[in-house]
Amino acid sequence: METKTLKQRLENGEFAITAEIFPPKGTDVSGVYEKAGLIKDWVHAVNITDNQRAVVRYSSLALCALLEKRGIETVYQLTVRDRNRLALQSDLLATREFDIKNVIALSGDLPLLGDHKEAKPVYDLDTIGLLECIDTMNNGKDLNGHTLNRETDLYLGAVCNPGYIPMELQIMTMEKKVKAGAKFFQTQAVYSAEHYKEFVDKTEYLGAKILAGILPLKSARMARFMNKNVPGIDVPEPLIELMEKSPDPIQDGIKIAADLIAEIKEFAPGIHVMAINFEEKIPDILSAAGFKKLPG
Amino acid sequence: MTVTEKKTKEKILNLIKDNDNFFIIGCGECATTCKTGGENEVAEMKEFLTQNGKIVTGGGVCQTTCDIRLVKKFIRGHKEEFEQSDALIILACGAGLQAIRQFSDKKLISGTNTLFLGTTERLGTYSEFCMECGTCTVSQTFGFCTKTRCAKGLVNGPCGNATKEGKCEQGSDKPCVWVEIFNYLKENGIEDQFMKIQVNNDYSKAHKPRKIKDYKKVY
């Protein structure tokens, strides 16, 4: 990975690429090391999800710390679903010593959608509350204004959904997130560069760096499933048909993602690749989109 | 109103298995409206117990089961049948059941599950609009309590997971309250006011168990 941090790249106006890795269900992190190893020379930072889909997994904080130790810059995903404000702040205080530089604040999927449906959802703070909290901690105070012996040093991010309806509501919420301290966003998966361009134009006034979510398709079935079940995802019908007729859907999924990235990189400050259990294809996708292996 | 539902047959059978003589107490307030603890439900429970080989020593509907004073009066009025029982079946909310505990050491069996503070749409259809958090911020969110009506209790929502029909990801029958707020603002031509919503979550008055002792003069 490069010596420049994600923050430096984005703030300097240089194109940034992040990718997402899920922590394991279990104590063995070797699979994550392997995946991170495959993509580390292609992306600028790696997101580690926080019990995504409300399924119990290895700690996001711990995994970020382990990857940072191996020289891989991470984006620490933190949801407000599982921790109250005491636990959130306590975990955030640990980030500096572990050299974790980026954090993404999320609300988190509801426990009812996960593998521990009986869990008590926390949501003590909401995403905007968490962003304000981290911003305060970056300035040397805890949420209630008590002095910290050393401040956190975190580049603050949030998420957004370019396919959200009504769009004005999503943009106003993003504006609130920016006011609460968010400097960058990673989006829900997008499939149309044209639609995404409209979203970029509408959100330009926010001054935030928005990384377009790229989720490579593996099959027509996957596309249909997401269209039906994932709010904001809208895979255009011609792409689904193409996948359906394809003799090699994996290869075509890679090509579709690469073409989309090639278009988006012309007007967006970066992309965020969510190649669910498909991380080994990230170098192929990025290479097909015209990127080269990172120097160093 | 406190909304209750009946416990399942299997649950009740399991709860009553160790006792023989039962006294049933319903409630004339919310449980009567919810049809979980009125005269009919007390009679229905009596029949159910009898069918299952139990003896019902008596029973009835207490005017207000969550009022300790009225519970006392009710029990006094049914002294004999009450004393003959070795367990009580309560068809009221949890607040009512525990008021009864103040007067009796008998085994208490709840025949209901207490669900939430409900707003009545029509008889039998109730919605939870208020979670009794103790720090009301509903006027800041235009008369929609997002702590209660947003599945995540977001006070500065929405999240990004509402469906395009404006439903919560939790279930297709649940509207996203944040979309409802936005639609309300839009219909009234004041959507710019959405940006003014800024609520802090304060749960310091929600710490259980809560009790108040006096009426306060404020104005």
Q: Your description of this structure?
A:
The complex is a heterodimer of chains A (296) and B (219). With 296 residues, chain A is of the alpha/beta class. Helix content of chain A is 39%, strand content 15%. In chain A, α4 links the parallel β3 (74-79) and β4 (102-106). The longest helix of chain A has 16 residues, at 249-264. The relative contact order of chain A is 0.14. Chain B is an alpha/beta fold. Chain B has eight helices and seven strands; from the N terminus they run βαβααβααβαβββαα. In chain B, the strands form two sheets. In chain B, strands 3-2-4-5 form a four-stranded parallel β-sheet, with helices on both faces. In chain B, β6 (112-122) and β7 form a beta hairpin. The longest helix of chain B is centred in the first third of the chain and has 13 residues, at 39-51. Chain B starts with a strand and ends in a 32-residue tail after the last helix. The chains are: A alpha/beta (296), B alpha/beta (219). Chain A binds chain B through residues 80-81, 107-110, 112-113, 121, 123-129, 159-161, 164-166, 168-170, 172-173, 175-176, 188, 231-232, and chain B through 151-164, 166, 169-170, 178-179, 182, 191, 194-195, 200-201, 203.
Report the largest inter-chain contact: A-B, 32 and 26 residues
Give a short account of the largest sheet of chain B: 4 strands, parallel
Q: What string, H for helix and E for strand, traces the elements of chain A in order?
A: HEHEHEHEHEHEHEHHHEH
Q: What is the ordering of alpha helices and beta strands of chain B?
A: EHEHHEHHEHEEEHH
Q: Strand-residue fraction of chain B?
A: 15-25%
Query: Helix segment count of chain B?
Result: 8
Concise structural overview:
Chain A is α/β, with parallel strands linked by helices and 296 residues long. Chain A contains eleven helices and eight strands.
What's the layout of helices and strands?
The complex is a heterodimer of chains A (296) and B (219).
Chain A: H1 6-11, E1 16-21, H2 30-39, E2 45-48, H3 60-69, E3 74-79, H4 85-94, E4 102-106, H5 127-138, E5 155-160, H6 167-179, E6 184-189, H7 193-203, E7 209-214, H8 220-229, H9 237-245, H10 249-264, E8 270-273, H11 282-288
Parallel strand pairs in A: 1-2, 1-8, 2-3, 3-4, 4-5, 5-6, 6-7, 7-8
Chain B: E1 2-6, H1 9-16, E2 21-27, H2 30-33, H3 39-51, E3 55-62, H4 68-77, H5 79-84, E4 87-91, H6 94-101, E5 107-110, E6 112-122, E7 125-128, H7 146-149, H8 177-187
Parallel strand pairs in B: 2-3, 2-4, 4-5
Antiparallel strand pairs in B: 1-6, 6-7
